[in-house]
From TrEMBL:
Stretches assigned to coiled coil: none
This protein's record includes keyword Signal: yes
Alphabetic keyword roster: Hydrolase, Signal
Database matches in InterPro entries: 6-hairpin_glycosidase_sf, 6hp_glycosidase-like_sf, Glyco_hydro_88, PolySaccharide_Degr_Enz
Signal peptide from the UniProt entry: 1-21
GO molecular function, one term: hydrolase activity
Lineage: Bacteria, Pseudomonadati, Bacteroidota, Flavobacteriia, Flavobacteriales
Name used for this protein in its record: Glycoside hydrolase family 88 protein
Amino acid sequence: MNKSNILKAFLLFAITTISQAQEIKSAEVIQVMEKVADWQIENYEGLYSGHSKPHHPLDWTNGALYVGMVKWAALAENDKYYEWLKEIGEKHEWQLHHRKYHADDHTVGQMYIELYRKYQDKDMIEPTKEQFNFIMYHPAQTSLHWKTPYHQSRWNWCDALFMSPPVWAKLYNITGEKKYLDFMMSEFKATTDFLFDEKEDLYYRDESYMGKLDNGTKIFWSRGNGWVFAGLVNVMNELNPQSKEYKYFLKIYKKMASKLLKIQTPQGHWAMSLLGQEFYPTPETSGTSFNVYGLAWGINQGILDKATYGPAVQKGWNVLVGHVTPEGMLGYVQPIGAAPGNAWPDKTEVYGTGAFLSAGSEVYKLYGGK
């Protein structure tokens, strides 16, 4: 390593060390969340990770943004963020995206239900209820094995556990109809039995990564497991903590939380290949945001010990904030993919913003926000 690279490495280490130790203040969390949310709304149709045209407003990418944006809207001082989300729903007549069974196209339903909770307008949720009722009475008979016919009509990739199950759980909560919960539990268990590695307490992205090694390590994608970890939280938020269903999710959540604590990088992020941080040193903010969100939630709920997990949240949040530009763009978001890859300081994505806003909503509470 030449002198220039040694100096750069030292400066990065020094900056990281200082940022990790920085005390988090709830008012500053609100300020950076507002800056990131405003930048994203202003650049909603921007092309920042190589795609050739803006994402459809009902696409999963934006659906994940809305999941975080609605959490921010609940903290903001005025309703302009709710109004922005409401306008999207109204424009598309509260429809889910075009694929009836595909979990990705259900994601936007999470936002619709949260808006229903605020405005009590049944039109906001009727299309979602109708589509989910159809799925229940015409369940997909497809295999969970990868690349079998119509395989993604079921949740056979781990991202799906963020996209669709929380919608089912929310429908159960607001209607009181247990059929939504029962269907979700059956499918979630099938996916977990298929993709969860009991030795590593992590999820494979899909069957195609089982048995493969990357630099001698099993391949567990950071954002993929982040999708699951955040999805667990969003489901548990809808359930009675005394219920058997909640306890099922809690058991998985605790296993993942313990593992994530052990494999967080010294810098505070999580490597794109969770078990191969020495081979993936580049920061990545979408998976890290989901993990910070999930861990901070656990502390706030009294599930995780603050003395044990609090430092991980502090390091994680500080490293995330360090990748927000002065204008409010969250950098180092890995582009759309399904496996460990690369990320860049000047590239972002809407789902990364959604993950960041979700993380901020729990970090704010953790550090004294009301």
